[in-house]
Design goal:
Largest sheet: none
Radius of gyration: 22 Å
Helix content: 40-55%
Distance between the termini: 70 Å
Mean pLDDT: 80
Order of helices and strands: HHHHHH
Number of helices: 6
């Protein structure tokens, strides 16, 4: 990996601990969770090219194609989900989120490639992760039924250790 690139976990982890002026973290936990889910989805989609030679005899003589026919159902499903997410996010936000979380590019490299001002990719990343978290159903606070009372099928909880009569 070139010196200008970093892993997506490193970029997200570094931004999750960096503090804003008010002391809050730059990336909230739901932003980091959305980024990690996207990274897992990209890995499952098998979009990264093969780096090793395949000596499988069944593949010899086939036309190249785009590999969709060779993809498993899981990879095809992941590609469709990525395509849906890409259509729901603004183009620049999706590009930065995908570059960081999916391809493992560093923010400085993204800014250089796109000829953006310094520290701008960081803001676009946060906006994109916020929208991606919303698409994935993640939010900053836990939401649930009023009262938050946990119920179970037992009316009373059984004792952990049964009492024995002497």
């Amino acid at each position: 990996m070139p010196a200008t690139e970093q892993s997506d976990d490193a970029v997200l982890a570094r931004l999750a601990v960096s503090k804003e002026a008010d002391g809050s973290p730059f990336l909230a936990p739901h932003h980091v969770a959305a980024g990690k889910r996207l990274a897992q989805l990209v890995e499952r989609s098998r979009l990264s090219p093969r780096i090793t030679m395949s000596y499988d005899a069944s593949r010899i003589g086939r036309s190249g194609g785009n590999g969709v026919g060779d993809a498993s159902d899981s990879a095809a499903d992941a590609r469709q989900r990525l395509n849906r997410m890409a259509s729901l996010l603004p183009t620049d936000c999706w590009g930065v989120v995908f570059d960081v979380c999916g391809l493992g590019k560093g923010l400085q490299l993204i800014e250089t490639e796109r000829r953006w001002p310094r520290r701008s990719a960081k803001l676009v990343l946060r906006i994109g992760l916020e929208q991606l978290a919303g698409i994935m159903g993640l939010s900053a606070g836990a939401e649930g039924p009023a009262g938050g009372r946990q119920t179970g099928w037992l009316e009373t909880r059984l004792p952990l250790i049964a009492e024995t009569a002497p």
